[in-house]
Specification:
two-stranded antiparallel sheet; alpha+beta; 18% helix
Length: 165
């Protein structure tokens, strides 16, 4: 069961990473930690036969990156020791995803994000021995928080997508 839940979470994180689209912003980040490192961005478009285009994605990777200004950190705070290493911005739905590692244990990271989401709605959770997912609505955002523990560190991915009005 442990291997299956870890595999499912990894598949979810990979799926979420490949479904986002970014604007290619290469600005370095500030998280309050060490000096920021500029990430690398990848992007591309596919031209359709009718003259329209699909932006098939771009993302930004680096070390200790800044929280993007589009990310709703006022309602979805990050852990104080977060070292952001991946950002995805989706131009189509204005969603933003950040992935970071933290020295917090899985138990502590899960407790932190359960507290963050406690006043949300439609909350759903699934957890295992070394992984946990919390999904729901917080403020005006649909939220998915995935937490995986490995070798004493926890890795967190937070996806926030504004709800259609």
């Amino acid at each position: 069961m442990k291997k299956i839940s870890t595999l499912l979470i990894m598949v979810l994180m990979i799926f979420l990473a490949f479904t986002g689209c970014s604007d290619g912003d290469k600005k370095p980040a500030e998280t309050g930690g060490s000096a920021p490192v500029t990430g690398t961005a990848t992007q591309g478009k596919v031209e359709l036969g009718d003259g329209s285009e699909i932006n098939y994605g771009n993302s930004q990777s680096g070390n200790n990156m800044e929280i993007p200004e589009e990310f709703p950190k006022d309602i979805l705070p990050v852990l104080s020791d977060a070292k952001i290493n991946h950002i995805i911005k989706n131009d189509a739905n204005k969603g933003v995803s950040i992935t970071f590692n933290t020295g917090n244990s899985l138990r502590d990271a899960v407790a932190f994000y359960k507290e963050v989401m406690k006043d949300g709605s439609d909350i759903q959770e699934i957890g295992g021995e070394d992984s946990h997912i919390i999904m729901g609505v917080k403020g005006d955002y649909s939220v998915a928080i995935s937490i995986i523990s490995s070798d004493g560190d926890s890795y967190v991915q937070i996806d926030a997508t504004p709800q259609a009005k």
